[in-house]
Each structure stands twice: as C-alpha cells, then as structure tokens.
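Case 292 in the screening queue. Each case pairs one protein sequence with one candidate compound; here the compound is zinc ion. For every case the pipeline is the same: read the inputs, emit a complex structure as tokens, and attach any notable structural observations.

Predict complex for case 292.
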Amino acid sequence: MGPYHPECPERISAITDRLIASGLDAYLYHYTAPPATREQIARAHGASYIREVEEASPESGLHFIDPDTALNPHTLEAARHAAGAAVLAVDLVMRNECRTVFCAVRPPGHHAERNRAMGFCIFNNVAVGAAHALAAHGLERVAVVDFDVHHGNGTEQIFSGDPRVLMVSTFQHPLYPYSGMESPAPNMVNIPLAAGSGGEEFRAAVRDAWLPALEAQRPQLILISAGFDAHREDPLAGLKFVESDYAWVTRELVAVAERHAQGRVVSMLEGGYALSALGRSATEHVRELLAA
Ligand SMILES: [Zn+2]
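Case 292 output:
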C-alpha cells in the first residue's frame, strides 16, 4: 500500500515470529497457497471487475484503484494467492486432511465488494472460500464469522440474501466503512459495538446473537474473517479486546463446528495493525484452532 502504511508485510512476520517463539509452530503443517483461478475468483466477483484489476496492475510504482487501496507490481499476484489460500484451506478441511486451517495472508479481503476494491482489499478471500465450498464441495450451509473491528461490507454485499450463507459479525460503529447498522437480509447478523467496548460487550454479542444464529443454521463449515484490529493496542480503532477474548471466541466457534460441521474451521487473516498485539492475538487464535 506504500511506505509507512499499516497494512505492511511485517504483519505476516509478526505472526510467524510469535508462532515460532510460542513453540506452537512445531505442531503446525505449513502449506503454500496456490493462486486462485479466475473461475474461483469469479464466484465472488464480476468478470469485468477482475479484468479491471488485472488491467490496473502497474509495471512500476503504485496505482490507486480506490482512495485507500493501491496496487504495486506484485499486489495482483499476492491477491490471487490470498484468495487461493481460502480455496486450498476449504479443500483441506473438506478432504479431512486438516480439521482447522489458519491462512496468514495479505492483502485482506472482507471490504472488497463484488465489483469494487475497498479498504486495502482487492479480492474477498473469505467470500471466495465460502463460494468454493458451496460450488465445488456441494455444501448447503456455510457460516462466515467476522470479528474484525471494521464491518465486512464486501462479504455482506456478496452474500446478502443468499440463504446458504449466514454471516455474523461484530464491529466498531461508527467507524470505516460506516455500514452495517442495519441488517439488509435475514442471513446477516450485524452487532455494532460502541467505541471503548471490550471483551465483556463482545462476549455478550457472541452469546446473545451469534451463537443462537449459528445453532439455528447448523453450518457445515465455519469460515472466519479473523481481523485482530479490535485489540486495545491497535492504532486504527477504539475497541479494547485482548488476547484472551480471541482465544475465547475461537473456542466457542470450534465448539459450534464440532457440533455441526465435523470440526471444520477455516480462518482468514483480515486486519490487525499493532504488530506485537497482532502476533500475540493470532497465536492465541491458532492455539485454540490447534487444540480442536
Ligand atoms: Zn479491519
């Protein structure tokens, strides 16, 4: 996204370094994400939008396709691999090769709408994964859970009104992208949180709204838009989550997956910009996925 930008390559090394330091890394299987094919991306995005991104990819320098979202010469390739991680992760859990998968990918995806890049997001990785589970594996009920501090407007726009996909989310409001105050369709469960809210408010939202909706849907697969920017140390927002909140919600989601989805959970990195807090939070999230 350019120099000194919070959505930076060091985010991934903050996570991988912390996984190594924690000792968890030795228990993980590592996979390299293949690029998603155009057909896989086109399940979540319009063909003309995909072409627009391809044509906007610069030979050098930065090209802004949205006021917040730039392409450098390597971004398109990275975005294809980030979406491809979702596809591979879904294949791994559906083939029973893994029970749970965490995808440490950039760029993030949940702001990308069907025909629009937004908020550092080019392709909507979690939506590509959900659409792959429906189209390629024949699932009938998939849940997308989004605990990023920002509302996942792109995922909502792509699946709003699609009864096969339940989306439950919490996010700070008002905050970018200033959407999500109303649920546009019954399959969208949006819980806005006021600035300053912490684990107590988050856990109440999960208990009172997310878990009943998930129990009613009985998802065959849970996908997580795992943004860690609701952490109290994050510079981009004003919620006060801590590592134990991410561990708690992960345990709750794993329990739902064990009841209904044969334990299948695919988690995709979204935001999280305080590097140390990001590494610690993602590590506690992975620890609970690994314990599943
Ligand atoms: Zn975010």
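Case 292 observations:
- Strands lie at 63-66, 69-71, 100-103, 142-146, 165-172, 188-193, 221-226, 265-269.
- The radius of gyration is 17 Å.
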